[in-house]
Amino acid sequence: MRVSLRLVASAFYRFGYKLHHKLFLRPQPRLRTPVIIVGSYLAGGAGKTPFTIWLAKHIQKQNKRVAVLCHKVAWDEFILLKNLLPNIKVIATSNRYTTAKAIQDQFDIIICDDGFEDSRFTGAKRICLNWHEQPTSWTRLFPNGPFRSLKQDHDEREIIHLNCYGTNNIIPDVNFAIETLTNYTPGKPHSAKIICGLGNPNRFIEDVRAFGAHHGIVIQGSIIRPDHDKHFSQIIANELSYNDVIISQKDASRLQQEFLVHPKLHIAIQNVSVSDNAIKNINSLLS
Fold first, then answer.
1. Which helix (H) or strand (E) holds 224?
2. Which of 133, 122, 72 has its CA nearest to residue 97?
3. SS3 state of residue 182
4. Residue of higher predicted confidence among 239 and 116
5. Burial label, 221 (beta-carbon count in 10 A; 0-12, 13-18, 19+)
6. What are the extents of the domains in the chain?
7. 3-170: which CATH number, 3.30.360, 3.10.20, 1.10.1140, 3.40.50?
8. 176-272 shares the fold of 3-170
9. Which helix (H) or strand (E) holds 40?
10. Beta strand spans in 64-190 (E)
11. In the predicted model, is pLDDT for residue 22 greater than 80?
């Protein structure tokens, strides 16, 4: 791409980003209750929801009243949050700020699962799950690409960066790994197919392959579906006729009970581990 075209594309992205915030996301009065926004420069597949679950449980252990807000479009994430946070209030909303304002006096901490770019939250504390990835072309920027915003779009003084996965030889603050599979016993299944409907399926597929290699499971390929896929159960039904299938916990939230108890369906249970130094920084953020 010629330099001139890159400059035009960059200017167009920047103008659109600023205009959207000026019209729809203007800063609003600071809320009385602290708000923590869990986000990433990536639009999907960065581990925001699993980390939000870890963070909500961590805060609850400190005897604080916690509410978690997610976008109602992410209906499967709402179900996952409700299932894994049974004693915490989870709300699906199209306007996180309005909802947070309405409930602020009922809770000690409000966590937003995503909403990293929501500049209405004046004074909010933001946690960025940083994968140290950069867009390689303007086509990888939102709305068509995986990058919702860039580092220069944010005030870095308001953000705690948590390094993920040890990328670029950086020791991770947050690590995601497959801990076990449901309906799994040593040596069974011998082989399975991965079906994935996440924002960034590659990481999940890599994690499952690593688990399979360690436990002697041959991965027979993968099927990638759209994020928040409403036809996921149909794909699962077709594949279970022929193969054992491995899916994520988020994907499982789209399925009826008859699938969840199927002996050939295996849900990959993810473990989120956070370094001592990161926990120290998070506790400082909460104080």
1. strand 218-224
2. 122
3. coil
4. 239
5. exposed
6. 3-170, 176-272
7. 3.40.50
8. yes
9. none
10. 66-71, 89-93, 109-113, 125-130, 159-163, 174-181
11. no
Looking at the DSSP bridge assignments, the partners of residue 128 are 39, 161
SS3 150: coil
What's phi and psi for 160, nearest 5 deg? Answer: -100, 120
DSSP 2: -
- The residue that leads in pLDDT, 24 or 284, is 284
pLDDT in tens, 126-139: 998 888 765 545 55
Quick check: bond before 226 cis, omega within 30?
no
Compute the distance between CA of residue 251 and CA of residue 191 in angstroms, rounded to an integer.
20
**The two three-digit tokens of residue 32, written as one number:** 């009385």
The sign of the CA dihedral 145, 151, 157, 163 is positive
Of 217, 180, 222, the residue nearest 197 (C-alpha): 222
**Cβ atoms within 10 A of the Cβ of 213, count?**
11
Beta carbons within 10 angstroms of residue 20's beta carbon? 12
Tell me how far apart the alpha carbons of residues 264 and 228 are, in angstroms, rounded to a whole number. Answer: 23
Report pLDDT digits (tens) over 82-99.
999 999 999 999 999 999
Angstrom distance (rounded) from CA 95 to CA 100: 9
Integer Cα distance of 126 and 52 in angstroms: 12
The Cα-based distances of 159 to 27, 218, 240, 245 in angstroms read: 17, 41, 44, 39
Please give the CATH number for the structural domain made up of 176-272. 3.40.50.2300
Instruction: Quote the CA–CA distance of 172 and 166 in Å, as a whole number.
Output: 4
The predicted model scores a pTM of 0.84
Q: Is 111 helix (H, G, I), strand (E, B) or coil?
A: strand
Burial class (CB in 10 A: 0-12, 13-18, 19+), 55: buried
